[in-house]
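Q: Got one fold?
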Amino acid sequence: MTSDERAAAEFDTAWGAAPEAVRRALTLAYASLRVGGLAVGAVLTDPAGTVLAEGRNEAYEEGPGSGPLTGTPLAHAELNALGAARTGWDLGTAVLWSTHEPCPMCAAASRFTGVGQVRYLAPDPWGLSAGVTGSAGAGAPTAGDHWLLAANVMFLRSVALAHADEPGEPRILAHHRTVEPETTELHGAVAPGRPAPDTPEAWFTGFWPTLDAAARARRHRLRATGAPPASSTA
């Protein structure tokens, strides 16, 4: 087995073990990244984990989108997912998954609509850079270090692309060099520009050994500082 075949097999195992909600949220975030939007995806599931509704961030997109919020400051992934739910659904038994911790607006919307649980893959990079975290009331990331890094590298790449014509690097990217160094190192190791593969699976497979090494480095760093790692739902 070649190194590429081994990497593909290892990724397939990890991807297959991740909950459907994690895979779908990452896929939605990747779709936003590919069209030049902010890479955040969210899904609403029933207690068994079946996806009931979904959305991706469309706030920075022009032209027709998947819903009426496209191109507005309200078009966050979580609001688009909640907007796809029906009034008669019992959201008290539902789980809202997002690739990133919901911002205060989306956290408030989840509480207002009575969503039973909120889970996320990675802290909100905007929130970290502004010193604001915990607005979702969801505790720590709940999908493991691999998917935290996968979500973060897509988010940072979408920000970097949006500011590509500006001098210096975006503030969020600079801030992450301190708070999430493995993310920024991984971002720098991935081929520059917008991803070419049609699917996140194909893109992640291409740098899975590097992502896996970054996940192990993050766990080691957190153990050394006594901080809790991202828990795994797989």
